[in-house]
């Protein structure tokens, strides 16, 4: 199967899992469940769940089906976007080509739907891996650490504070990107490895590949925000510059940013190639992210 | 030891655990961790962690130390208050006698601190009970279900919607209170039972006691809002009536509300008395909640 077809298969598998593992929109509270589904079904690249599934596949999905872990990761990612779009944060109207949750519903509903997606992620892990509680506990720990106050949320907080200061130095910017973006990409590969039954030695390679891939992904995001348009992106373009936000582009310039993304992506590929199994799909994915247009 | 002294010991134990299990305010992001600690250290009755500790004690804390579970429950309760106080929700300035988190910091910081407390709750469970992953997974599942979109958050969502409609019928009000308040009280007793190594048969009794105790607690809250003042409560009094909110008082009247609280509290005591161990402290706690003034 070529890369594009394999990607399509994994995205479809993730979306099937999302539909199955979220409460039905008819269950009370119906409005809350509708808002959770609205945000989760808005599409997007499904990068993180695809990484979970692909990483588990490297080890032959030996320990457990990684689908629930993939859905849990996407729940956490989506909650972070829903809260990030709120008026008190980035105040954004558009996400994945559709109105943001607080525009489609209202602020309180978006707040609660984000809270509920975060909580659901942990319920999914505890329920789905109940037969292998050692795995369930390891997955909960990995996800809670990546999404916690030392990583994902620390990155968001420092990002906001840097915006208030009118910029960030290269070191502060690296802290923001390693936590706001790379933490969840790392966790996706590591959680896939856990479901796959990866040997303990493989975790470091997965984590390093995830870190570099996450950083490269963020730089491309910054480049697209600076150089693309809203229709192509499906979210508001040019908002970093308008907000006076520190990005790799504003700190290092477009050419240096492109070179950094390339180098990080190559670093991720090197780490991936040190892992067992057929890493062809993951290496192609790393390369394809360099040339993405949205 | 008399009831008041025993309560004081358990509260002090819970507060020690809170201090130990939250990231230091000096760790980056410092502002985020300061806001988490501000909200968690604001005091309050510590009802839920005390219930976790006392329920585990009924069974001699046989399986594991319940302190981390108690702290996790308080993290989730506090996050729900921080988000509930935000301008898009209840828009409140005062909580536990101090400015609410978004007043002491700002809206974005309060939002993120709430998110971080919720996430930290699950990290605490996975870390602290890592040596007994079956227990860790069971605790995560219990807490995530109680705090999830079918229970705690469903109750909050329906509460807001009822306010928008200008009231709720008795059945809708019961749904709100069973989920917004009783779910976490139930989970506190059940999680304590899990740490205590309670036999499977004890869970139903703990859950029933928690449900009745939680409902009684909510009715007293409604009564205090209607009859007490802001200085005594440490939070804004009279806001239910001003918001046109459906409460047990507005739906059933003060006298009927008092009778319902008494009956529920007696029901909780009956359920508790069916449990093994010395239930004296928990029964006294149930009775003391009836006469609380804040």
Description:
- The structure is a homodimer of 294-residue chains.
- Chain A has 15 helices and 2 strands.
- Chain A has a two-stranded antiparallel ribbon.
- The mean pLDDT of chain A is 94.
- The first copy, chain A, starts with a helix and ends with a helix.
- In chain A, helix 14 runs antiparallel to helix 15.
- In chain A, 72% of the residues lie in helices and 1% in strands.
- By secondary structure, chain A is mostly helical.
- In chain A, 57% of the residues are buried.
- The first copy, chain A, has a single domain, classed as Farnesyl Diphosphate Synthase.
- The interface between A and B is large, with 55 and 55 residues.
Output the CATH topology of chain A. Answer: Farnesyl Diphosphate Synthase
Note the beta-strand portion of chain A: under 5%
Termini Cα gap of chain A: 24 Å
Order of strands across the widest beta sheet of chain A? 1-2
Question: What's the Cα radius of gyration of chain A?
Answer: 18 Å
Task: State the CATH superfamily name of chain A.
Answer: Farnesyl Diphosphate Synthase
Average pLDDT score of chain A = 94
- The helix content of chain A, as a percent range, equals over 70%
**CATH top level class name of chain A:** Mainly Alpha
Count the strands of chain A?
2
Oligomeric state as shown:
homodimer
Supply the number of helical segments of chain A: 15
Largest sheet of chain A: 2 strands, antiparallel
Q: SSE order of chain A, as H and E?
A: HHHHEEHHHHHHHHHHH
- Secondary-structure class of chain A: mainly alpha
- What is the global morphology of chain A? globular
* Tally of structural domains of chain A: 1
Low-confidence stretches of chain A: none
Q: Please give the CATH architecture of chain A.
A: Orthogonal Bundle
């Amino acid at each position: 199967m070529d890369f594009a077809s394999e990607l399509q298969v994994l995205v479809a598998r993730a979306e099937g899992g999302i539909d199955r593992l979220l409460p039905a929109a008819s269950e009370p509270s119906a409005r809350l469940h509708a808002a959770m589904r609205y945000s989760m079904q808005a599409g997007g690249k499904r990068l993180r769940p695809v990484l979970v599934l692909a990483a588990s596949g490297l080890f032959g999905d030996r320990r457990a089906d990684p689908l629930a872990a993939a859905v849990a990761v996407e729940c956490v990612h989506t909650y972070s976007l829903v809260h990030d779009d709120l008026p008190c944060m980035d105040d954004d109207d558009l996400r994945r080509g559709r109105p943001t949750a607080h525009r489609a519903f209202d602020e309180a509903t978006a707040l609660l739907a984000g809270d509920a997606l975060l909580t659901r992620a942990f319920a999914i892990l505890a329920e789905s891996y109940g037969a292998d509680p050692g795995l369930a506990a390891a997955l909960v720990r990995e996800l809670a650490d990546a999404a916690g106050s030392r990583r994902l949320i620390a990155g968001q907080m420092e990002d906001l504070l840097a915006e208030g200061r009118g910029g960030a130095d290269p070191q502060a910017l690296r802290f923001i990107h390693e936590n706001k973006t790379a933490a969840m990409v790392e966790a996706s590969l590591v959680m896939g490895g856990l479901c796959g039954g990866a040997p303990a030695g493989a975790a470091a390679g997965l984590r390093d590949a995830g870190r570099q891939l996450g950083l490269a992904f963020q730089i491309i995001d910054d480049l697209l925000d600076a150089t693309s348009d809203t229709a192509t992106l499906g979210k508001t373009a040019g908002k970093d510059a308008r907000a006076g936000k520190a990005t790799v582009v504003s700190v290092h310039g477009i050419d240096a940013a492109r070179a950094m993304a390339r180098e990080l992506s190559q670093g991720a590929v090197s780490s991936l190639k040190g892992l067992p199994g057929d890493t062809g799909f993951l290496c192609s994915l790393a390369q394809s992210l360099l040339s993405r247009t949205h």
